[in-house]
Write a structure and sequence with these properties.
alpha+beta; Beta Polymerase, domain 2; five-stranded mixed beta sheet; 5 helices; 5 strands; globular
Length: 174
């Protein structure tokens, strides 16, 4: 499916979509590991693409098993979406005559990636002014990217990194 980067307002339904996805994952993974709701849909009031982002945090030794399990359960592995700390998958569902997309991030529990994502989510939940700024950036990114995920991610990158840096500075302030 060709996925268009289109900005959508926040919906309270995103919480339910995540709960449904977590329930499915708990049933298929059968490994005790944190499953977190991240991304725009995890921040009440924040608009975005409407994609539910799910982060599964696991030890490196479990990643091979989880990778195989996810692929067997129709999560499409995306080679260019990950890095050494994160494997990236997506899955589409039909819901109310529309396609719902889930992005799944399988991250190493030893990496900073999962902590940074949770910290960024929590920061935006607690700082509505910065969440509003991020929403404007996401809206502009959706307009200029013309479906190119690299452009979309790069457009948001500086803001995200500035917030992560601020969070880390605040944590270690004496």
């Amino acid at each position: 499916m060709d996925y268009k980067y289109e900005f959508k307002p926040y919906s309270e339904k995103y919480k339910d979509y995540f709960k449904q996805e977590k329930y499915k994952l708990d049933k298929i993974i059968k490994v005790d590991c944190p499953i977190e709701h991240i991304g725009s849909t995890a921040v009440p009031g924040l608009g975005g693409k409407g994609t539910v982002d799910v982060m599964v945090v696991a030890a490196k030794k479990k990643r091979s098993f989880l990778d195989t399990t996810l692929r067997k359960n129709n999560y499409d592995f995306c080679e260019d979406g990950g890095n050494s700390d994160r494997l990236f998958y997506q899955r589409d569902y039909r819901y109310n005559h529309q396609v719902r997309r889930v992005h799944l991030h399988l991250v190493d529990q030893e990496s900073n990636s999962w902590q940074d994502n949770i910290a960024f989510r929590d920061y935006l939940r607690e700082n509505p002014e910065d969440a509003a700024k991020y929403e404007q950036i996401k809206m502009a990114a959706a307009k200029i990217c013309e479906g190119d995920k690299g452009i979309y991610r790069e457009y948001k990158h500086r803001f995200i990194q500035s917030i992560i840096k601020k969070i880390k500075a605040d944590r270690y302030e004496i």
